[in-house]
């Protein structure tokens, strides 16, 4: 499904790491992993995938450009960009290291969150890869997807 080069930020942990795994499950063979932190665990999860690990601060435009340049230098292209702050999905509470200790259960939040549980990183990742997929989302443009367990239902 993903024949090109994927560029994923925040790839050490949580949603970014799950997104890298989702791209790999859906056939991506070349993935650029970007994070401030150590990317070796994510690399080890991506069997059969050629990776380029770049330690960069994505809040610094020059570092993002340098990471993109490194990808283009290695593979000549970047086809899909899944950037933690830029992709158009709107997560609710997703169970990752960032939200450790925040609890949603059927008892604590039935009135505000119909699904009464946090989202899993994979549930965000699959929406992100859907949005990057030319076959599945070929006529989708300028959309904000809410992936939040449904609080707007109330
Ligand atoms: N988890 C949630 O419930 C939730 C909800 C709303 C929005 N978000 C957003 O989704 C994104 C991912 O969240 P997560 O839950 O997977 O968090 P996480 O803490 O599990 O992972 C975030 C990753 O981003 C990296 N990172 C942080 N700042 C960086 C920077 N400046 N440059 C490069 N890498 C950087 C961290 O090292 C870490 O590996 C974040 O932007 C977060 O604000 C998360």
UniProtKB/TrEMBL annotation:
Family per similarity comment: Belongs to the short-chain dehydrogenases/reductases (SDR) family.
What one GO molecular function would you report for this record? oxidoreductase activity, acting on the CH-OH group of donors, NAD or NADP as acceptor
Instruction: From the Swiss-Prot or TrEMBL record, give the protein name.
Output: NAD(P)-binding protein
Q: Which organism is it from?
A: Cutaneotrichosporon cavernicola
Please give the PANTHER family that the UniProt record associates with this protein. Answer: SHORT-CHAIN DEHYDROGENASES/REDUCTASES FAMILY MEMBER
Which InterPro entries does this chain map to? NAD(P)-bd_dom_sf, SDR_fam
């Amino acid at each position: 499904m993903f024949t090109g080069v994927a560029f994923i930020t925040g790839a050490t942990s949580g949603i970014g790491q799950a997104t890298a795994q989702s791209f790999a499950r859906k056939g991506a063979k070349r993935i650029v992993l970007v994070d401030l932190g150590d990317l070796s665990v994510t690399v080890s999860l991506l069997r059969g995938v050629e990776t380029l690990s770049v330690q960069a601060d994505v809040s610094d435009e020059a570092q993002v450009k340098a990471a993109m340049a490194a990808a283009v230098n290695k593979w000549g292209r970047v086809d899909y960009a899944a950037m933690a702050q830029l992709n158009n999905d709107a997560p609710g509470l997703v169970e990752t290291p960032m939200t450790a200790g925040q609890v949603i259960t059927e008892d604590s939040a039935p009135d505000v969150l119909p699904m009464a549980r946090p989202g899993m990183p994979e549930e965000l990742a699959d929406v992100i890869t859907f949005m990057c997929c030319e076959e599945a989302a070929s006529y989708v443009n300028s959309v904000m997807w809410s992936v939040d367990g449904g609080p707007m239902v109330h």
